[in-house]
Amino acid sequence: MKKINIIVMFLFLILVFIGCSNNESTKTLTDQETISFSWWGTTDRNIATFKAIELFEEMYPQYTVIADQSSWDGYQTSLYNKLERGRESDIFQVNYNWLYSMDGEYYFMDLNDLEFDFSNWPEDEHRPLTINEKVLGLSLSETGYVFYLNWKVYEDAGIESVPETWEELIVAGQRIGQQSNGTKYALGRLDAQQVAILMFSWLAQIYGKNIISDEFKLNYTREELAEGFAFINTLRSNNVLISSNSFDTHTVGPTNPNWVTYQNYGGILQWNTAVSEYENELPNTANLITAGMFQQNKGEKLGIYKKVSMALSVSKRVDESESKKLAVKTFLEFMVSNEEAIIALGVDRGVPNNELAYNVLRESTNPVFTDTFEWQGHRIVQEYYNNQVSLQQDLYIHPYYEHDVFRRIYEIPIEKFLFNTYTANQAINDIINNFDSTLESVTRR
Amino acid sequence: MVGEKKYLPYLLLIPWLIGFLVFKLYPFINSFYLSLFEKLSPRESEFIGFDNYRKLFMRSDFFGGQFINSMKVTFNYVFFTVPLILIVSLLVAYVLSKKIKGIGFFRTAFYVPTVLGANVAVVLLWRELFESYGLINQGLALLGMKQINWFGSSAGAMTSIIALRVWQFGSTMLIFLAALKNISPSLYEAAEIDGASKIRQFRVITIPMLTPVILFNGVMRLVETFQTFTSAKLITNGGPLDSTRVINLLIYQVAFENRNFNLGSAMSWILFVVIMLFTILIFRSSKYWVYYQD
Amino acid sequence: MNSYKINSILRRNRAKRKIIKTVQYILISSVSFFMLYPLLWLIGASFNDGLMTNFSFIPVEFTIQGWLDGFKAPGWGSVEGYSILRALWNTMQYVIPKTIITTFSTLLVAFVVARMHFKGKKIVFALIIGTLLMPVTIFRIPLFIFWTSEIISPLWEGSKLPFMPYLPLWGGAFFALDSFSIFMFIQFFRSIPRDLDEAAYIDGASKFQLLHHVLMPMILPAVVTVALLQFIATYNDYQGPLIYRGDVDTYPLTLVLPMLGKDSTNTYAHVFTRSIIAVIIPLTFFFVAQKFFIGNDVESGIKG
Fold first, then answer.
1. Overall average pLDDT of the C266-276 stretch
2. Cβ-defined contact of B149 to A246 (cutoff 8 Å)
C-alpha cells in the first residue's frame, strides 16, 4: 500500500511540474516565440522562401517559424475560411484586393502598431494598402501587365524589329499569318481578363482615364467602349489574336501546347511577376523577349496599369501579445532588409520597391537579377507609370477591379464576345447595365 | 413477447434520433433561416426577408441571371441523363437476363465504371479523353469522322459530362436485372403460345412488370443528378461560358468561395423545393402508369 | 400440319433465335469493350512518356519512369513533396471510420425497426423513408457552420492526431444518417422469417445474441453491400474535403489528384500512374466483396 502511495505522489508531482513549466505569465521579451507563416507558390518560390526562413531561424534562434505553404488553387477560399474562424496564420501572403474583399479592416492588424519603418519605400506605395489610416499589408512588390514575345515566331516570319506601336503589331500579325498560312499568331489566345486589360490599356492611352472613377462608376462611355471592342476585332482579324476562343480551349496559359509545343502563339500579356511560369515551359528553341506595352505613337510611354502585386498581412490576434508582435516585426524586417534573405527570395515575388532590397538585388552578381524578365518588365512598368503620373494620369488598379464577384461583370460579357456568342454591342450593354449597380453592392455604398 | 425491457428500442434509437434532429432537421430549418438574412460585416447580419429569393428570380440582377442560367443548365443535364440511363440500363439488363454466356463477366464489366466513375482520378481522366487530342477524337478519326472541339462549345462540354454519368449505368442495370429475374416465366410462355412476338412481349409484359423499378430508379437518379458537382467542377469548371455551371457548382461558389452563406442557402432551398416538386409529381403520376403486382 | 413442316418451322425459329442471340452478344460485347477501353487506355498511358495521342492503348514511348517515381516526389504540398501514399493514408483516415461506423449504426437502427415492437415505430419508419430522397445540398451550409462553430471546431481543426482532422467527414456516421443503408437492411431483415427469432428466443437467446449469432450470417451480403457502397461513396467524395480543407499535409486523395496535373515537374506518365494508384483500392475492395455475394443483394433488397 505504502509503495503505491509513494508512486502516485511522485507521478502527481511530475504532473504538477509539467503543468507549471507551461506557465506563460513569466515570459520575457527574449523568450521563445513561434510564428506561423502561410503563402502560396510554385516550387521555385517555395524553395526560396524555405531558404529565407532557414536563414531567419539561424539568426534568431529563439524564434521558430511554422511554414504553411500551398498551391494557388484553393488558397484564397482556405484563407477566408480561416479568417472567419480565427484560425489564420500569424503572417499570411495576400493579394492587394483581398484587403478590401476579405474585410481586411476587421481581420488584419494595423502594421503601424508594430512600429514598422516604411521609410525605405516610395511614399505612395502603401497608400492603396491603407484603409482608414490603418496599414493592413506590407508591400512585397508592384506589378503591371506587360507583353512578352516569343521572338522565334516573329523571326521565322521575317520580321526584323520588335513592334513598338499597335500598327506595327498588326502588320507583324498579318505577316506572321501569311507566312504560316494562318496557323501562327503575333500573340495568340488571351483570356477575358487579359483582353479586358488590353482594351482598357489601349483606351487609357487615348483618353487617359482609369476604368473606375473616383465615384466608383464606370469611367467610359458606350462609344468609347465600342471603339475598344472594335480594336479587339481588328486584332482578331489580323492574326494578332485568334479569331475565336472556342478554337482553343486550353485555359491554362503556360502549358498550352500552342505556346509550348507548336509555338503557334507569338506572345503573352501577363503581370511581370507571373512571367516565370510561361518562361519555364518554353523549349530551348524559343526566344522570349520583353516587349513592354505597345503604343499609339512611337516614343510614347502610356497605357500601363499597376498595382501592389502581393503583400504580407498580419493577423489581428498578434496584437494581443507583445512578444509575438516583436517576433513578427523582426521576421518582416528580416524578409525585406536582410541581404542574404533578399537574395534567396530573389525576384520570384516580383521586384521590390524597397530601396534597400532593390539595391541589393541590382548589385548582386551571383545570381544576376537585372536581366530577368521580371526585372525588365518591372523597369518598364515603373518608368511608364511615372510618366503617366507626370501627365496627371492615375492608372492604378482600383481595389475592387479584381473583386471575385464584381470582376465577372466585365469578364463574362468579354468572354462571350471572345467566343463569338455575343456581339460587341451585347457585351457593352451587359457591362453598362451591371457595372455601377454591382460595384455598389459589393462595396456596400 | 419475451420479457424484454420496454425501453430498449428507444434506447437503441437515440443515436438515430440525435442524427435526425441535429444533422437533418436543424440544418433544414437553419438553412431557411439563413436565407432570410444578408451579411453586412463579419459580425453583423441584417434581416431582409425574401429579398434574396426575389433577387434570384430576376434575370436582370447579376446573381439572378446566374441562378436562372444554372437552373436551366441543370434541367438540361437531368432531363437528358436520367432517361438515357434508364433506357440503356433497361436494354442491357434485358439482354443479359436472357441467359447469355459469361453473364458474370458482363455484369462485372458494366458495374466497374460505377465503382470508379465518381473517383476524382477517373473524372480527370475523362477530361483528357475529350480534349482535342484525346481518345474520343482519336476514335472519331479512326472511323473517318470529323474531330469535335468538345470543350469549345456548350453542347460539346455538356455532352462530355452527360457521357460520364451515363457511363456509370451499371448500378441501375443491376437493379433492373434483378427485377427482370422476378418476372415469372409463365407469363412469357403464355404469350408465346398466343403467338406474340418478342417485341410485343417486351412491350406488354416486361415493361409493365418493371414499372415499379423504373419509378424507383428514375426518382433516385433524378434526385442524384440534380445535385451533380464533381464532374462539372473538374471537367469544365462551369464553362465554357457557364454552360455547364450546374446549380450545385454555383451554390458552392457563392457559399464557399464568395462566402455568401445567405444567398447560398436561398439557392439551396429553391433547389430543394424544385427537387421535391418533381419527386411528388412523379409519384402522383405513378398511379397512371405503374403497375403493382399486389 | 405434318411433322415435317412443324420441324422445319421449329428449326427456322431456332436458327432465328440463334442469330438474334449472336447479334445481342456482339452488341453487348462491343458496348462493354467501349465502356472499359478508357481504363485500358489509362494503363497504357501510364507507361507512355509524353502525351498519348493515338487511339491504341499501346504506349508509343515506353517508359516505366512513371511507375518508378509514382510513389515519390515530385509530389505535392511541400518543398520536397509528399508522396501519394500519404494522401492515400489521409483519405483512409476518414473513409475507414465512416464505412465501419455507418454500417453498424444503420444495421442497429434497421434491426430495431424491423424486429422490435414499440410505439411510434410507424413514425420512425416514415421519417427514415422521408429523408431517403432528401437532397443533401440543403444540409451542407448549416452543417459547415456547425462544424466550424467556436464550440465544435477546436475538436478537430488543426489537430495532429490521426482521424481527428477529418471529423466533419465521418463524425456523423455514429448517428445512422444514411437512410438508404437503413432501408436496405430493413428490406433484408423482412426477407428473413420471424420464426427464426421465435426459435432463438425459446432457446433463451437475448436480442443481442439473436442479432449476432443468428441473423448476422444471413444478412452478411447486405452488410458487405452497404459497406462497399459507403466505402466507394466516401472515397470518391470531392465536395466534402473541398469544404473542410485543413492544412496542406492533411489533404486527402480527392484534393491532391487535381493538383498533380502536368506541369514542369511531372510527366504525363506520372499523372496517369497516380490515377491508377488512386483507383486500385476501391477496385480491389469491389472484387473482394464480389466473392461474398453474387450480385443478388442490391436487387433483392429492393424487392417488395
1. 78
2. yes
Q: What is the DSSP string of A36-66?
A: EEEEE--HHHHHHHHHHHHHHHHH-TTEEEE
For chain C, the residues whose C-beta falls within 8 A of a C-beta of chain A are: 74, 76-79, 148, 150, 153, 157-158, 242, 245, 247-248, 255, 258-259, 262-265
Q: Is the link from the previous residue into C74 a cis peptide, with omega within 30 of 0? A: yes
**Which positions in chain C touch A47 (Cβ < 8 Å)?**
79
- First-last CA distance in chain C: 46
Return the amino acid letter for C96: I
Rounded CA-CA distance B67/B61 in Å is 10
CA distance C76 to chain B (A): 15
The shortest CB-CB distance from C36 to any of B112, B248, B275 is to B112
- As a whole number of angstroms, the distance between CA B291 and CA C245 comes to 48
Size of interface A-C (CB pairs under 8 A): 40
Contact residues on chain C for A250, CB-CB shorter than 8 A: none
Residue that has been written with the C-alpha cell 532590397 in this structure: A357
C86-252+282-300 folds as MetI-like fold (1.10.3720)
> How far apart are alpha carbons B98 and B266 in whole angstroms?
49
Q: What is the least distance, in Å, from the CA of A376 to any CA of chain B?
A: 35
A80 touches chain B (CB under 8 A): yes
How is domain A144-306+376-443 classified at the CATH fold level? D-Maltodextrin-Binding Protein; domain 2 (3.40.190)
State whether residue B40 sits within 8 Å of chain A by CB. yes
Give me the phi and psi of A401, to 5 degrees please. -60, -35
Beta bridge partners of A69: A39
| B144 belongs to a structural domain | yes
CB contact under 8 A, C176 and B264: no
d(CA B169, CA B190): 32
Predicted ipTM? Answer: 0.87
**Residue C256 Cα distances to A402, C81, C246, C278, angstroms:** 27, 11, 13, 10
**Cβ neighbours of residue A293 closer than 8 Å, sequence gap 6 or more:** A145, A146, A147, A201, A302, A303, A304, A380, A384
The CATH homologous superfamily for domain A33-142+308-363 is Periplasmic binding protein-like II (3.40.190.10)
Task: Show the cell assigned to C300.
Answer: 433483392
CA C252 remoteness from chain centre = 16
In tens digits, chain B (294 residues) has pLDDT values of: 444 567 888 888 999 999 999 999 999 999 999 999 988 877 788 888 898 899 899 887 788 888 999 999 999 999 999 999 999 999 888 888 876 777 788 888 888 888 888 888 888 888 888 887 788 888 888 888 888 888 888 888 999 999 999 999 988 988 898 888 888 888 888 888 887 777 788 888 888 888 888 998 899 999 999 999 999 998 888 878 888 999 999 999 999 888 889 999 999 999 999 999 999 999 999 888 888 765
**Maximum distance among all Cα pairs of chain C, rounded to whole angstroms:** 90
pTM higher than 0.90: no
User: What is the separation of C-alpha B132 from the centre of its chain, rounded to a whole number of angstroms?
Assistant: 28
Closest to A444 (Cβ–Cβ): which among B40, B153, B259?
A: B40
Does C258 sit within 8 Å of A78, measured CB to CB?
A: no
Same topology, domains A33-142+308-363 and A144-306+376-443? Answer is yes
Cα–Cα dist A291/A294, whole Å: 8
From B133, B241, B257, residue closest to A77, measured CB to CB: B257
Cβ-contact A334, A59 below 8 angstroms: yes
Give the minimum alpha-carbon distance from C120 to chain B in angstroms, rounded to a whole number: 10
